[in-house]
Amino acid sequence: MKIDHVTIRTGNLAKTKAFFETVFGLVEKPRPKIIQRIPGHWLYNGKKPFVHLIGGYGNKTGFTTNAIDHVGFQLKDYKKFKQKLKKLKIQYSLMDIEELQERRIFFKTPDGVLLETVFNEKIQ
Questions:
Q1: In angstroms, rounded to a whole number, what is the distance separating the alpha carbons of residues 25 and 45?
Q2: Which site among 24, 40, 45, 119 is 20 to 30 Å from 81 CA-CA?
Q3: DSSP-derived secondary structure for 55-113
Q4: What pTM did the predictor assign?
């Protein structure tokens, strides 16, 4: 199994879209006509729509965004990505899991959705 896409509901579409484009290098492409009536964006990783953004309810509780704790993306080049977050002044926390030989970086979107990036790299 693998993640096909992630849909994030946000009260600030423009800021969240810019965040994903800047941090992950995703590119917006047109959405299917059937869903264009819903405010939002589809952000692509290559030829695949990977992050779907839809207009949300601000910071209210009780909606579906409270059902998911976080989303994890597997990436490469831990050092380079960590430097990018520093440059962008995005606060993060680190976790190394020696048993799996994985390094992880946790940080939040502008609306506070927790993201995890996983790197299969040897822990030094």
A1: 8
A2: 40
A3: E--TT-SSSGGGG--EEEEEES-HHHHHHHHHHTT---EEEEEGGGTEEEEEEE-TT--
A4: 0.82
Which two structure tokens, joined as six digits, stand for 42?
A: 């589809």
Q: List, in order, residues 6 or more apart from 104 with CB less than 8 Å away.
A: 94, 95, 96, 97, 116, 117, 118, 119
Look up residue 20 and give its DSSP letter. Answer: H
Cβ atoms within 10 Å of 4's Cβ, excluding its own: 8
Give pLDDT tens digits along the chain (124 positions). Answer: 678 899 888 888 999 999 999 999 999 999 988 888 888 999 999 999 999 999 876 555 455 544 567 899 999 999 999 999 999 999 999 999 888 889 999 999 998 889 999 999 877 7
The SS3 call for residue 43 is: strand
Residue type, 15: K
